Amino acid sequence: MLSTILRRVGISLATIFGASVFAFILLRVVPGDPARAIAGDMATEDAVAALRADMGLDQNLFVQYWRYMRAVFTGDLGFSYSTGGTVNSLLGDRLPATIELGVLAVIFAIGTAVLFASLAVYSNSRWADRLLRTASSLAMGSPPFWIALLALMVFAVQFGVFPGPEGRLSPGLVPPADITGLYSVDALLAGNIPLMFNALWHLVLPAAIISIGPFAFLSRLYRSQLRSTRRETFVMVARSHGLTKFPVFNRHIAPHGLLSILPAGSLLFADLLTGSLLVEKVFGWPGIGSMTADAIIQKDFAVVQAVLLLAAVLYVVVSLLADVILTTVDPRTRVGAR
Amino acid sequence: MSTEDLLVIENLNKSYSTGFGGRNKTQILHDVSLSVGRGQTLGLVGESGSGKSTTASCVMGLTAVDSGSIRFDGREITGLSKSERRALRSSMQMVFQDPNGSLDPRFTVRELVEEPLIIHGHKDRSERALKVAKTLDLVGLTEKQAERYPHAFSGGQRQRIAIARALVLNPQLVVLDEPVSALDVSIQAQVLNLLAQLQDELSLTYLFIVHDLAVAKLMSHQIAVMHRGKVVEYGTSQEVFEQTSHPYTKALLDAVPGTKQGVGHA
Amino acid sequence: MPVNTEVQRAGQEQSTATPVLEINNLCTNFELPGSTVQAVRDVSFTLCPGQRLAVVGESGSGKSAMAMSLVGLIPPPGKVASGSVKLRGKELVGLGDKEISAIRGKDIGLVFQDPMAGLDPLKTIGSQFVETIRVHQNLSVRQAKELACELLAEVGVNDPRRRIEDYPHQYSGGMRQRVLIAMAIANDPAVVIADEPTTALDVTTQAQVLELLERICDERGNALMMITHNLGIVRQLCDSVNVMYAGRVVEQTSVNALFNEPTHPYTKALLDCMIDPYTTVRGQLPAIPGSPPDLAAAQPGCAFAERCPLGSAEKICHEQRPEAVVLASGAVSRCHFAHELEGAQS
Amino acid sequence: MTLSVASVRATQQRSNPIAVFLKRDIPLSIFLGLFILLVVGLLIGPWLWPLSSDAINLSNVLQAPSAAHPMGTDDTGRDLLARFLDGGRTSVFAGLLIAVIGAVLGCALALMAGSMRGWVDSVFTWLTNSILCFPAILLAMAIAMAIRPGVTAVVIGLSLHSFPWYMRTLRSEVMRLYGQDFIRSTDAIGAHPVRILLRHVLPHLIPTMILQMAAVFGASILSLAALGFLGLGAQPPTAEWGAMITDGQQFFLTGQWWIAGFPGLGLLVAVTLTTLIADRAREVLDPRSDAV
């Protein structure tokens, strides 16, 4: 078992290396002259030359790459021109907001997917199955940013059930002491319950919208795993021993379904990142998503390079983690054959 | 035409390596030595994991060999290059166990039987059509059936198509890997009779892989019993059945249900 | 409960004991888009306590579908269309999930063909065994585990206390089938239905499993219904046999009569196909011409007609469905010429 | 269970899946019909609908949907139905391009990796994994920044992400096919590996590839619109559904819902239809597969 995990870690490191090279080429080779792009068309030639020297763009590519990766390993992600601060501090401020949103979105996505897929498969009724498939197709097809606008108009403007696009807390409220960076958690830790509810109140709508994409493919995945497990012989055997429908579903079918969600962890992460890129802007949410969108427009290469690297590393870490958990949870891989 | 047997296998060894850098090797074949005379049938009997199918795919060149020699028609074939081995294929063919899986569902029966001819460069269409018709008739399939797709046929008929596909190049050696195990007994009998009749008509040589000793006895002139990669017994089907020497073979014979107690109960 | 098997079996043949299972006019269909496959067509027979019945037939004969219909385990889109299955007088067809589940594993134990896929790979043998026991017997987990260990020992699993904690993938195919048999008899069922229990096993392992089944039936005296296509198994293990073809029971007789004086042409043809290593001649193995019938097509006459050496020429066989005829010897044959065939025998 | 059911079901499945597609499944034909209607409507729209999409007309600004302007007008008086048709064409065209480029490149790589195995396979897989670390939208955004925002940048970015995605899914399908007996039997006959690849492996990939193209087509339309929404996709004045939603964003909250409403609806209908089609088609193709 250990050798498989070591091999997996090796592959993950190779993938991260590959992704970092790819991101590096994307932002240093493809644009031709990044310094001119940053400085803009009106900047004078020597201003651009100074910027180029400062960014070390005049070195050959390998040196640039090596210097960049060395900086990354020492934790220095470079300087953000558009915000005037280091990329590290920028990420430090923005990351928690996206994480808080992402965690809730994951809970919504997995919760609804498992619930509806289980109901559709357990009830074994054709219309429930068709309803689920139509719902997941609709979810697959709904543009998150448009749904966000629609939701804001209906729930915020029309009925005022949820707050408008005012960010993480109602205006005028002081954010809680920074322990985890997640307002709802920090407010709870600080014992400020009304603040926690306010934070959650602001989280629900954007998180629900971000969870639409992941819900689409998770519900399909879970449904198909349940249906294929249901056809297995050991389910028939359990029925033949006298177990009624529910215990068979609960103890022998559902666990296989849950196990199948783990390998989809990395896909889930990629979908959440996509969701945050689009929805944060509509809700004025101070997270990585809106930051990246602005950085792209400002052509802030350092920030975009850092976000690309962060996305790649997190994607690989999530899939590695999912793999390791899967290997330990599944007895077939945890316990060697006798 | 050398006087030696058509197929001679000497000290064949084969192992599969798994794990990082192929550290842990599992030995599949241990010094397997067999030979099949022209127009004869060698029955290769053994339970799953005995190495009989591995021996077959080594003979066909589908899997590489660790050591040992395989001589076909007097010519060593283990070290051949890919193209040399492909040319050799027209004289040695194979029929697989699973009638559903061994035929490409997108090809009609005609295309399936014609493909070997195309592969081995028979350019003339009408000559190919003639050969296909003759082979189909040989295995008892009509012209009308030739236009249909494999899924429209029963297991027994599909095996006939697979046999036609193997015979259209009129090979010398046919490796039969459990050709009837997936079929019902009544259909099995039809295919076994067909194989026997084809062997007599076309003086084919068979390497017949099977786990059922009775089928082996019926079809084979010689039988080799394999157990965990070793040939534990090798002789004419008479000797293997009536003067059984190895205890494993005895165990195999005794294990066949319904033979010990004579006829019925009470 | 050691019972002298010879006496008990001889007596049983003419016994008037009330049957433990009574099947009348059972029909099971598979509703496929565009066609209905009648897998089981009007099957009737009884199973008496301690009887060892073999249900013999080739693929497509409906033997498995019939067996699964008895306990309502037909996978969709199959369903029991009509007929009745009575367990000691209690009707099983049409029972709700709760009622039929109470009978499965308790009164009727089942063993399936593929042991490799028969156990949940994510759970230990122990947890699945305890679950099976506690469904029908209110024992504590510890007591159930204790009973499980005894049963594992009984079926030949050595060192059960340790092995019970292992997972299915740590057992060989043969061992898994033993565990499944142990589970099937855990609640001491009156009937054990084995659906081709050894087809997926090597011949040496098969011999051991058959021996185990025989020992269990001898010791516990339960009735056995063995679904198989292997006539050798029928001869070794069973005392009576139903031969099925295209969804119908074409012959019901004792095993002795089957091998010595078969009455139905299909049974005779099937027996001829059995290879006798010492007498069968290469190339002249009797075969049954043609191929198995299409179960979706209607069967006006006898399904075996066009492959039957006797019936292919007879108009009556192609047009009129033969009724089951009870012969002097007690055998039941569904053939228009049953009497003539029986006459020819004696 | 009995073989009879499996063999009967097999005889119904004709070998040519396209024939099966339409005949047996009414909902599939409906969805396919609607989708073709939508695409044809977008293509021949300009001939049917006379108004041009760029004509600014300050006299009828922010008109609600009416007979004259079925989709109303925007803050500069431009007719929104005309812009909707133009925008739709951009999206559908770009979506098709991305789906096709990715399919061709991805399939070629998958065939090579699946057949040659060894280091070829590991290098291609490494390449694929390295690119697939990034969500498609993030890649397209980076490219938009690196060169110049616009539909070209988006198409490059999304194709860059779609071909490895095809490669990964088709490669496992190629591996599965090579394990089948009918490939080993053709190899045993002495067929050249290339012949096996083209005559036996590729035809079996086509149905799976078509399903994946439908999925990529839908996803690409959404991503194109998303980038338009972020101002990185089609630049004004070209009409594009995503950008139209951004234009209509502020009017959304003040009641003029139709400016952002219709393009979003167009997206929803187009992509949901493709997903439903792919879903039904997979069901008809192999009822037992239940593949995601």
Automatic annotation (TrEMBL), chain A:
UniProt cross-references to Gene3D superfamilies, sorted A to Z: MetI-like
Chief localization: membrane
PROSITE patterns: ABC_TM1 (PS50928)
Membrane topology listed for this record: Multi-pass membrane protein
Cellular component, GO annotation: plasma membrane
CDD domains: TM_PBP2 (cd06261)
Chain segments annotated as transmembrane: 9-27, 101-122, 143-162, 199-222, 301-322
Swiss-Prot/TrEMBL keywords: Cell membrane, Membrane, Transmembrane, Transmembrane helix, Transport
Subcellular compartments: Cell membrane
InterPro entries (UniProt xref): BPD_transp_1_N, MetI-like, MetI-like_sf
GO molecular function, one term: dipeptide transmembrane transporter activity
Domain ABC transmembrane type-1: 95-326
A matching Pfam family: BPD_transp_1
Family that this chain belongs to: Belongs to the binding-protein-dependent transport system permease family.
Protein name: ABC transporter permease
Organism: Glutamicibacter uratoxydans (Arthrobacter uratoxydans)
TrEMBL record, chain B:
GO molecular function, one term: ATP hydrolysis activity
Cited Pfam families: ABC_tran, oligo_HPY
InterPro entries, per the entry: AAA+_ATPase, ABC_transp_ATP-bind, ABC_transporter-like_ATP-bd, ABC_transporter-like_CS, Oligopep_ABC_C, P-loop_NTPase
Entry superkingdom: Bacteria
GO biological process, one term: peptide transport
PROSITE patterns attached to this UniProt entry: ABC_TRANSPORTER_1, ABC_TRANSPORTER_2
Annotated ABC transporter domain residues: 7-253
Coiled-coil portions: none
Record keywords, A-Z: ATP-binding, Nucleotide-binding, Transport
Record PANTHER family: D,D-DIPEPTIDE TRANSPORT ATP-BINDING PROTEIN DDPF-RELATED, TRANSPORT ATP-BINDING PROTEIN
Family: Belongs to the ABC transporter superfamily.
Name of the protein in its database record: Peptide ABC transporter ATP-binding protein
Species whose genome carries this gene: Glutamicibacter uratoxydans
UniProtKB/TrEMBL annotation, chain C:
Primary location class: membrane
UniProt superkingdom: Bacteria
Key words, A-Z: ATP-binding, Cell membrane, Membrane, Nucleotide-binding, Transport
Compartment(s): Cell membrane
One Pfam family cited in the UniProt record for this chain: ABC_tran
GO cellular component: plasma membrane
GO molecular function annotation: ATP binding; ATP hydrolysis activity
Entry's Gene Ontology BP terms: peptide transport
Membrane topology value: Peripheral membrane protein
SUPFAM superfamilies found in the cross-reference section: P-loop containing nucleoside triphosphate hydrolases
Matching InterPro entries: AAA+_ATPase (IPR003593), ABC_Ni/Peptide_Import (IPR050388), ABC_transporter-like_ATP-bd (IPR003439), ABC_transporter-like_CS (IPR017871), Oligopep_ABC_C (IPR013563), P-loop_NTPase (IPR027417)
Residues covered by the ABC transporter domain: 21-271
Gene3D superfamilies in the record: P-loop containing nucleotide triphosphate hydrolases
PANTHER family, per database record: DIPEPTIDE TRANSPORT ATP-BINDING PROTEIN DPPD, OLIGOPEPTIDE TRANSPORT ATP-BINDING PROTEIN APPD
NCBIfam families: oligo_HPY
Family: Belongs to the ABC transporter superfamily.
Entry protein name: Peptide ABC transporter ATP-binding protein
From TrEMBL, chain D:
Keywords recorded for this protein, A-Z: Cell membrane, Membrane, Transmembrane, Transmembrane helix, Transport
Subcellular compartments: Cell membrane
Database matches in Pfam families: BPD_transp_1 (PF00528)
Parts of the chain that traverse the membrane: 28-49, 92-111, 123-144, 150-167, 205-232, 257-278
Bilayer topology annotation: Multi-pass membrane protein
Gene3D superfamilies: MetI-like
InterPro entries found in the cross-reference section: BP-dependent_transpt_permease (IPR050366), MetI-like (IPR000515), MetI-like_sf (IPR035906)
Cell membrane recorded as keyword: yes
GO CC, any one term: plasma membrane
One GO BP annotation of this record: transmembrane transport
Coiled-coil region(s): none
Main location: membrane
ABC transmembrane type-1 domain sequence ranges: 88-278
Matching PANTHER family: D,D-DIPEPTIDE TRANSPORT SYSTEM PERMEASE PROTEIN DDPC-RELATED, OLIGOPEPTIDE TRANSPORT SYSTEM PERMEASE PROTEIN APPC
Protein family membership: Belongs to the binding-protein-dependent transport system permease family.
Protein name per UniProt: ABC transporter permease
Species: Glutamicibacter uratoxydans (Arthrobacter uratoxydans)
Lineage summary: Bacteria, Bacillati, Actinomycetota, Actinomycetes, Micrococcales
